[in-house]
């Protein structure tokens, strides 16, 4: 199959949904951290919120990198 016929995975619906979920994870984590720090003054809540935000940020960064590597491997090795 030629490269012009291959679907663009970064514009596919599932890719966008995954990115939205990781972004929501980041936002929810930051909100939990803010509420835990300023409103409830509960250190365990803001630590968990920061951890959740860190995971969301890491996945937002890592997922496109893995998608690109997978796409490059598929282009370089079309038989597998």
Explain this structure.
The protein has 80 residues and is an all-alpha fold. It has a domain of 43 residues. It contains 2 helices and no strands. Helix 1 runs antiparallel to helix 2.
How do the helices and strands line up, and which of them pair or pack?
Elements: H1 13-39, H2 43-76
Helix pairs in contact: 1-2
Characteristic key phrases:
single chain, mainly alpha, elongated, 2 helices, 80 residues, transmembrane helix
Short précis:
The chain is mostly helical and 80 residues long. The protein has two helices and no strands.
The number of distinct β-strands equals 0
Structural class designation: mainly alpha
Q: How many distinct helices?
A: 2
> In terms of per-residue confidence, which ranges show pLDDT below 50 for 5 or more consecutive residues?
none
Give the C-alpha Rg: 18 Å
The proportion of strand residues reads under 5%
Overall outline: elongated
Largest sheet: none
Write down the overall mean pLDDT.
Answer: 81
Helix amount, in percent? over 70%
Distance between the termini: 12 Å
Q: Helices and strands, in N-to-C order? A: HH
Keywords: Membrane, Transmembrane, Transmembrane helix
Transmembrane segments: 20-40, 46-66
């Amino acid at each position: 199959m030629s490269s012009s016929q291959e679907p663009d995975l970064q514009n596919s619906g599932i890719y966008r949904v995954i990115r939205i979920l990781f972004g929501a994870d980041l936002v929810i984590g930051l909100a939990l951290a803010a509420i835990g720090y300023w409103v409830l003054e509960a250190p365990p809540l803001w630590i968990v919120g920061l951890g959740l935000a860190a995971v969301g940020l890491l996945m937002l960064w890592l997922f496109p990198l893995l998608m690109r590597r997978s796409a490059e491997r598929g282009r370089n090795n079309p038989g597998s």
